[in-house]
């Protein structure tokens, strides 16, 4: 890694991740490479290798950034002075994910490749952000649903977090996919990220 000041290292890493984020809005993971990312940064592609060794490491850093952003929303729910019902919690968490389509899109990818092609220290940093999401979510349950047993709270978490992997593909459907579904005569009701998330959580948190 480049031996610059911590400020320069952080600034350049952020620029690289932001470039990847912008490209990912219009390009697929497969089509994005270090050359494409270098084209939208202020420095050359070889310089990127001072900060990230593979494109998977850059995507993992973007993934971590998305978890950090979601964690900020979860922390705000946790620190609110209001007492929420199960339905209100379902609404708040669904709205927090409605703003994190990029996180859900990354979740729908092959995370095994992303993690296996990243250095351990970067993977550990990512896992800390993910772990914070688990902790905040559990603390929200403990605060607003104190009647839940440990087993019930764990059940909710380990249903919902794996469920998140499938939200994006169901909510963000392309015109081509819709046409294929129509031609295949598949009767399917399209729902938004909010609707899919809320319906799951409202059922899990029913009566709490």
Provide structural commentary.
This protein is mainly alpha-helical and 208 residues long. The protein has helices at residues 6-24, 34-39, 45-48, 55-79, 86-98, 101-107, 111-116, 120-144, 150-163, 167-171, 175-183, 193-204. Helix 1 (6-24) crosses helix 4. The model has no long low-confidence stretch (mean pLDDT 93).
Helix and strand arrangement:
Blueprint: H1 6-24, H2 34-39, H3 45-48, H4 55-79, H5 86-98, H6 101-107, H7 111-116, H8 120-144, H9 150-163, H10 167-171, H11 175-183, H12 193-204
Helix pairs in contact: 1-4, 4-5, 4-6, 4-8, 5-12, 8-9
Tag the structure with descriptive keywords.
208 residues, mainly alpha, Arc Repressor Mutant, subunit A, 2 domains
Mean model confidence by pLDDT: 93
Gyration radius from CA atoms, angstroms = 19 Å
Instruction: Specify the structural class.
Output: mainly alpha
Kindly give the count of domains: 2
**SS element count, helices:** 12
Uncertain segments? none
Q: Can you summarize the main beta sheet?
A: none
Total DSSP E strands: 0
Distance between the termini: 49 Å
Approximate helicity band = 55-70%
């Amino acid at each position: 890694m480049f031996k610059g000041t911590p400020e320069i290292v952080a600034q350049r890493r952020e620029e690289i991740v932001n470039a990847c984020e912008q490209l990912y809005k219009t390009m697929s993971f497969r089509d994005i490479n270090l050359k494409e990312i270098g084209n939208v940064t202020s420095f050359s592609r070889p310089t990127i290798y001072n900060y990230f060794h593979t494109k998977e490491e850059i995507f993992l850093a973007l993934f971590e950034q998305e978890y950090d952003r979601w964690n900020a929303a979860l922390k705000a729910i946790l620190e609110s002075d209001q007492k929420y019902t199960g339905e209100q919690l379902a609404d708040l968490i669904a709205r927090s994910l409605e703003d994190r389509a990029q996180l859900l899109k990354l979740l729908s990818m092959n995370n095994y490749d992303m993690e296996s092609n990243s250095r351990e220290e970067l993977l550990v940093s990512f896992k800390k952000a993910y772990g914070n999401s688990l902790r905040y979510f559990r603390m929200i349950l403990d605060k607003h649903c104190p009647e839940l047993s440990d087993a019930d709270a764990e059940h909710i978490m380990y249903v919902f977090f794996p469920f998140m992997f499938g939200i994006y593909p169901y909510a963000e459907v392309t015109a081509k996919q819709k046409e294929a579904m129509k031609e295949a005569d598949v009767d399917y009701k399209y729902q938004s990220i909010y609707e899919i998330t809320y319906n799951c959580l409202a059922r899990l948190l029913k009566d709490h």
